[in-house]
Amino acid sequence: MIKKSVSILSLLGVTVLGTNIAHAQVIKVDGSSTVYPITEAVAEEFQKAKKNTIKVTVGISGTGGGFKKFCRDELDISDASRPITKSEMELCKTAGVEYIEMPVAFDALTVVINPKNAFLKQATVAEMKMLWEPAAQGKIMKWNQINPAWPDAPVKLFGAGADSGTFEYFTEAMVGKAKSSRGDYTASEDDNVLVQGVSRDVNAIGYFGYAYYAENTGKLKALPIVNPKTGKAVEPSAANVENGTYAPLSRPIFIYVKAKSLQKPEVKEFVEFYMKNGAALTKEVKYVPLPASAYTGNLEHVKKNKIGTVFGGQNEIGITIEDLMKREAKM
Q1: Buried b / exposed e across 75-108, counting CB within 10 Å, b at 16+?
Q2: pTM of this prediction?
Q3: Domain-terminating residue out of 242, 262, 278
Q4: Which among 28, 53, 82, 87 is placed 20 to 30 Å from 120, CA to CA?
Q5: Is residue 69 part of a domain?
């Protein structure tokens, strides 16, 4: 299980890594549970390297929750599993919070089922829409209502909470509109809760970032999704993210670094450490690292103080690593 807390402060949704916090400089990070495993791994290695003279707190309030705190000037870094939105850009602007957007990895957003499910071999975007759209609430309650070849058995749904970037991306990719979802499902910002829910019910289905599936392959089965362009069912994997066939559920994930915080030596040092070690640690926690040029490009943006986002406040479905790198080159 990917750990979400190592101290009593986890009750507050915050992980504190290390000891002697009263005498240390503190870097505050919060946001996406999807990005959390990468940032937490980087934070642990960074603190070891600094012999705990610098502490990094990593929260998991979801992408939306992280941006709320970030745009209130409460954080140094916001983890995000989607680009910053127009409304969040406005909040940051109002508060005078400037930021540098840094893609750190690619994720295969993964639809999971119980390993004992013997009938579900693949699913189309249309079937996922029928299952998850708002009109399904209280009406689509059995598998055979979606596909008559599937059994007359109850559907148990598990998914991301409304403050999650994963929730926004999934609903836009599968339903066609961000945040458009039925509400009668078990929602959580903690992906481990979703893992446990799906693993305990043969009729369950859920979704979250690939790392949480990879950590729990004994408890879960990944559901291949039919690529709308090719008509072929594709499993989530690093190779299928890299070659662009796992669509439309491949996505870049980010950290947003407050420009003002980069004036603090400890934050600048942490960001440099993140970019230099991010690829290896990303692979370690089962995400897909970006090309080396992306990480050096992020450091160039720090050096040149390139403020803002290349997404213009819009999420983009199905963007490939290659597309992202071209976008970065245009900045």
Answers
A1: bbbbbbbbbbbeebbebbeeeebebbbbbbbbbb
A2: 0.85
A3: 242
A4: 82
A5: yes
